[in-house]
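Subject: Sanity check before I submit

Could someone independently write out the structure tokens for this chain? I want to compare against mine line by line before I put it in a report. The sequence has 239 residues.
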Amino acid sequence: ALLVAFVFVGVASANTAPLADAGLDQEATRGATVYLDAGGSTDPDGAITGYEWSITGPNGAAVDPDCRTCEQTQFVPNQTGEYAVTVAVTDDDGATREDTLYVTVEEAKPPSVTVSGPDAIVSGDERTYRAEATAGDAALSTITWRVDGIHHVHTRVSGDSATVSENFTLPAGDHTVSVTVIDDDGRRDTDEQTVQVVDRSDVAGDGTTEVDGTTVEATAGGGEGIIQYDAQAGEWSVD
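---
Independent answer below. Compare away.
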């Protein structure tokens, strides 16, 4: 009898390349950490075995992430513009695919502050000045008052806005009252106001003044007239 043996040779199915997912496009501010996650990548017929991140900055130069071969990584953009972030994923059969996201980086918005109060006063009179601060991209941290560049008081603040009032009694002469606000990221803004102070010896009686923020009137020494400050002209006169 003739014995015939049949041998069947199996044909391996073709590998399917993985599906890379770098994540969604992002917006960020310069100097702030950008977080990257390729965890959404999959392999239909196997497993992801490797990741490779590459980043191109707005000027075309390469930017190094904290970990080039990790599933999750991060980087800090040091200039504004668009960054192209690509992740290449490799499966257990050696096949590779890429995906790219774009990060648009803008300059961080600083806080803002304004100072208000009378432009002119009489020496020895206590007057109130007010600082109004508004946050930018980070919460407010501190407000600092200075008179003629010399530190006066430092106040802790927080949140998106703050109003702080401070009383000053200034000697005769021209002075600068300034206020600086700083946010949690160290960004700052400064505003200042020039204050002209008339000497009390030129004012008769108790030196009572009328102040509306632009004009100060007081009885002149010897009762000879009224001392008046013209804010636009920036000078005192006696009527």
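---
OP: Matches mine. For the report I'm noting this point. Residues 13 and 95 are 14 Å apart (CA to CA).
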